[in-house]
Amino acid sequence: MAEPALKSAVETPSSKGRSDENFPVGSWLIRRELRPHVHAFYRFAREADDIADNPALVASEKVRRLDRMGAVLDGAAGDDAPSATAMRASLRETGTTAQHCHDVLRAFRLDATKLRYRDWDDLMEYCRYSASPVGRQLLDLHGESHATWPPSDALCCALQVLNHLQDCADDYINLDRVYLPEPWLAEAHARVEDLRALSANAGLRRVIDRLLDGTDRLILTARTLPGKVKSPGLSRECAVIVDLAARLSRRLRRGDPLAMRVKLSRGDFAFALLTGLLSGGRG
To answer: Model pTM greater than 0.90?
Structure first.
């Protein structure tokens, strides 16, 4: 028997959108007929992320809502999760797997219940579900080989860590969620509570730089991605995103995410676009 429609929406949309990201989402470089499907996946992931980041919801309620999104994605009746309904239609039209959607839901369930991380491997395990599926979905839509997945995973994980560093203070203050590994903080004679300060102390700065070291290694692996992608437009978009990741990493090396919002400038986007157009699409 089909599950009855639920009256109240499970999604809790925030004001965040594609323009708030550090990378283009379904830009004009992507084939026109695929852009709606890229946007559908983004909306699905964005709505799930907003649930996990909603400070007004307790962990169990976040998990319940994320579970409901997964059920609607898989065919449950109801109009309470519109982004999941739209994503289900997209999957049906394109024939792509629902696994990437379920992977991001798994990551956001972790966000609801897991507040601390042990080390780099623990963080990368989280990124495997929160970040890697985004690139894999885009590659699958274009019919690219799974040989592109490792450098794509590296790029997506790098972007995820960079975003964590941008938001490290807000994540702690608003959600008590800290992606900076606690043992690393202890080794650097820093504390989680230092994230409440107006600027990063020396110990916290060492941990941030250590995470950037790992991120730069991921970006190095990601630089092989554009050359592995056969679709010219997607190859160019990958080249743009790799360049943006490298630029943001450099900005975080110089800037203090506790003192200010460290972000890319319009110039960064312009130069990255130029770099992508010149270096991407070569196969």
So the answer is: yes
